[in-house]
Predict the structure.
Amino acid sequence: MDVLSNLLLGFQTAASFINLFYCLIGVALGTAIGVLPGLGPVATIAMLLPITFGLDPVSSLIMLAGIFYGAQYGGSTTAILVNLPGEASSVITALDGHEMAKRGQAGKALATAALGSFFAGTVTTFLIALFSPPLAEVALKFGPAEYFSLMVLGLVASIVLAHGSLLHALGMIVFGLLLGIIGTDVNSGVARFSFDVPELTDGINFVVVAMGVFGLGEIIGNLENEAERNLMVKKVTGLMLSKEDFKAIAAPVLRGTALGSVLGILPGGGAMLSSFAAYALEKKVSKNAANFGKGAIEGVAAPESANNAGAQASFIPMLTLGIPSNPVMALMIGAMIIQGIQPGPSVMTEQPALFWGIVASMWIGNVFLVILNLPLIGLWVKMVSVPYHFLFPAILVFCAIGVFSLANTTFDVYFMAAFGLLGYIFRKLECEPAPMMLGFILGPMMEEFLRRALLLSKGDPSVFIRRPLSATMLVLAAVAMVTVLLPALRKKRQEAFAEED
Amino acid sequence: MSPIIKSPKDFWTGVMYSGFGGIAFVISRDYAFGSAGRMGPGYFPSVLSCLLIGFGILALARGMRKDGTAFGGFAWRKAAIVLAATAAFGFLLPRAGLIIALLVLIFGSATASTHFRFEWRATLLALALVAFCVLVFVTGLGLPMRLFGSWFGA
């Protein structure tokens, strides 16, 4: 069995004492920061990213993956306890989870979320192990034309599934692509859009953009409507689930995991879409549908497992194709590039220990999550209850020092402030920053693949439709685009996102 | 609401997109364009900026035709405080050193909150945070940040 021997190699790598240690630290830190209200996973990961730079590639990526699960789970804890979800994918969890907490069942809701996530994480780890090799096999046949079309598909998908105006999202993508171009052109050596600023000739670091737009932008947004948060849960008890509870959540967890794994693989999919879809599905099929929104345990189990399955499944396109399907994966790719690894199908064959180590660490990370979170819940409750006006200066401090440490230059701190302003303006204009981040990461790659594809075809653009794989992806992208523009589907899309507001 | 701008969010998004696109286009004209088969450094940015201008004009047009929601208020004062405190940190770090830069960042940004009051508990927390940063980032991780900067002759 290839899969088993691969996984064995992965566990050997991931289970070394030092990697286990970094995974544990990653999960703990990720949860601790992720649990802070008003801080989503993107901001959390961007903030903690600099810590991992000094490590060797395997440990650093394992730690980062740990941070990712921690941040994801921390967000759910906040959603359940204070109804202040730090991220879109926890919004759904808050619906029923917070209702449960209000009725004194916070422990039950948290345990359900943890167990559902753990189950989903276990299943998706195996899915990644099963599906990555064949997908990478296909990807190895990709030429520049296929890569270019794949990125077009990914970018289009990310706006179809994004929330808000399509036109705004399209503009944000192009804006991100342009931002990504800043810096020295690899082919001609010309410094583009650098305004003769030496710091700009290397391009803008993506962490600076992410921290500015997501971190600072969110802080200003939160300060704008500073509502008193009331934490009704001072102490969480009753973490144990009864036999009936297990019975109630078994089917929703299974359905949520299945749905999340499928949706997570899609470009532009991932955690948010998965949890929305799982909740909607559960509402339709559950016997307990009448209680949804009033504290139904199924309403926590399904979206939480879908959320985790989706988040983890989005590693598949990232690891095999090198294509990020959401901003978190874009951050991961950025981190890999900093470590000197070019994400793509060749990682699996050239650095099997790294690849399978990350896969195995996903499962280990999920184990740590359960072990850490249930006993430490008291600590998380304390962290959640820190008032925001004490919290945000501390977040700013970590953002500022983190950004400075990227290249030890204060220039990046100024730039983060500038992107913070931009992030706030985007918020006001209802322009989603997520598509911009994707464009920003993909910009230089897209230009390179476009260039190579057209160089090979001697300037003939029909190469993109003459190659079957490339044509298929472009057709898919066009279909996705047209369906959003159709009025009927447009309405459905608005309805689907309406619950968020 | 003004009679011309019916949907301010769309309108100003359009202004922003066409503005950024326009600037990027003008700058890209300085770079060799090349041809599709042999792309110069100006090719991709020019195409992108045209696209961005296009989306901007569409948004502008929509902002003048379709009614939309108005802006909520702008928290300019809070935004300015947070951003200024961040920039001040960048400015003070090499000059005054980490300790002062951190204190300015913490207390400066804290005034943005409506709940801000000067009290000993918050001050103690801030000092603890500074101590934590010094221990972890400078002593522990060895980041090249001086505790006291060039103004103190360091």
